[in-house]
């Protein structure tokens, strides 16, 4: 979707203290061979801090940086990957209460790791269609420190890090202008993430843990006995989403200064994102994500914030933000940095 007059006015992340992979190996939680292969140095671990509280902390900072007041907002869109709190309770309204505290809609976007990019597209649509309010607040927060997921062994593709993230999407202006945002899906690949696991009763209701490696192994066994896996290619879907967003923004890949991708481990990162986009690690953000791992839905905000606030991109630079989720679906946004970061931005309460 080509966008017009949509900006990122303030972004923020809440990253708990890093937990090194060497420490995890020393404590027997992780294997040394897997640590070396992943290339990941550390992930943030939040202890007993609830995911929604991580989102609230990030949101308060993003709001202060945006220059917007609570009455400017028409909606809050909250994304999450893991469980947020009591069953039958609304995490989005908890975040709303502790941030904007306004009688506006608060919606949870359950789009996996693509949540905040999907929410950005929804926010752009709302700001275009509903002129009464000039801003929408996007939030995300996850703490994977629960018995239902082993962050070190759940997947060979990534290590899970805890984080909160927030973005103020605005029609008034900001440090980055959104040129395009959208997604592409390959629904024939849906079964890859389901494997042989029954749909009912849902796994968590009977104490089944999240183990994506078991589901991958299921398809390896099926393939060995002559049953082909669902057809499709992760990288092709990522590349298709990128091509569409580039075309809608009216630019080419050669115009993109940096690419913000998910925090995958080194080899899967290359196979799923870098190679399909024909870029190397230096044009991506591996130097950052190797210290955070995969932050769930927070990755699409954590990456651009890191590049901008460390001065790695400045006014006039184009940044691609790309992610993916089970489905299989990939999303992409192209943004133009409109103002270089300056230390006085902190003092003035901007971005």
Q: How is this structure best described in words?
A:
Keywords: Acyltransferase, Cytoplasm, Transferase. Residues 246-337 form the Beta-ketoacyl-[acyl-carrier-protein] synthase III C-terminal domain. With 351 residues, the chain is of the alpha/beta class. The chain folds into 3 domains: 7-173, Peroxisomal Thiolase, Chain A, domain 1 (3-Layer(aba) Sandwich); 179-187 and 233-340, Peroxisomal Thiolase, Chain A, domain 1; 188-224, no CATH class. The chain is 32% helix and 21% strand. The chain contains 11 helices and 11 strands. Strands 5-4-6-7-1-8-11-10-9 form a 9-stranded mixed beta sheet, sandwiched between helices. Helix 7 crosses helix 8. It is globular.
Summarize the structure.
With 351 residues, the chain is an alpha/beta fold. It has helices spanning 21-26, 32-38, 51-66, 91-97, 115-129, 212-224, 234-249, 266-277, 286-289, 299-309, 344-348; strands spanning 7-14, 18-20, 42-44, 73-79, 105-109, 135-142, 163-170, 176-185, 258-260, 318-325, 329-337. The protein contains eleven helices and eleven strands.
Keywords:
351 residues; alpha/beta; Peroxisomal Thiolase, Chain A, domain 1; nine-stranded mixed beta sheet; two-stranded antiparallel sheet; 11 helices; 32% helix; disordered C terminus; Ketoacyl-ACP synthase III family protein; transferase; ACP_syn_III_N
């Amino acid at each position: 979707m080509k966008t017009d007059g949509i900006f990122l006015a303030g972004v923020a992340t809440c990253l708990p203290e890093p937990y090194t992979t060497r420490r995890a190996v020393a404590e027997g939680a992780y294997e040394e061979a897997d640590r070396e292969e992943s290339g990941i140095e550390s992930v943030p671990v939040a202890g007993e801090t609830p995911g929604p509280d991580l989102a609230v902390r990030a949101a308060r900072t993003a709001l202060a940086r945006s220059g917007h007041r609570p009455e400017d907002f028409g909606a809050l869109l909250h994304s999450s990957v893991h469980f947020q709190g009591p069953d039958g309770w609304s995490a989005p309204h908890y975040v709303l209460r502790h941030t904007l505290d306004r009688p506006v809609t608060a919606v949870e976007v359950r789009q996996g790791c693509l949540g905040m990019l999907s929410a950005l597209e929804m926010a752009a649509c709302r700001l275009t269609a509903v002129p009464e309010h000039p801003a929408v607040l996007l939030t995300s927060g996850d703490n994977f420190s629960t018995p239902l997921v082993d962050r070190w062994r759940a997947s060979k593709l990534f290590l899970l890090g805890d984080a909160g993230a927030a973005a103020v999407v605005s029609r008034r202006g900001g440090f980055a202008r959104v040129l395009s945002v959208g997604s592409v899906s390959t629904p024939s690949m849906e079964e890859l993430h389901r494997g042989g696991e029954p749909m009912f009763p849902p796994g968590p209701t009977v104490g089944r843990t999240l183990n994506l490696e078991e589901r991958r192994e299921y398809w390896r066994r099926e393939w060995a006995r002559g049953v082909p896996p669902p057809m499709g290619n992760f990288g092709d879907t990522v590349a298709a989403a990128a091509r569409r967003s580039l075309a809608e923004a009216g630019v080419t890949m050669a115009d993109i200064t940096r690419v913000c991708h998910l925090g995958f481990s080194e080899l899967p990162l290359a196979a799923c994102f870098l190679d399909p986009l024909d870029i190397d690690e230096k044009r991506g953000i591996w130097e950052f994500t190797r210290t955070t791992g995969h932050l769930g839905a927070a990755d699409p905000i954590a990456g651009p914030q890191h590049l901008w606030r460390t001065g790695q991109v400045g006014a006039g630079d184009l940044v691609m933000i790309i992610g993916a989720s089970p489905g299989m679906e990939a999303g992409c946004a192209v943004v133009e940095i409109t103002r270089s970061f300056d230390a006085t931005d902190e003092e003035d309460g901007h971005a």
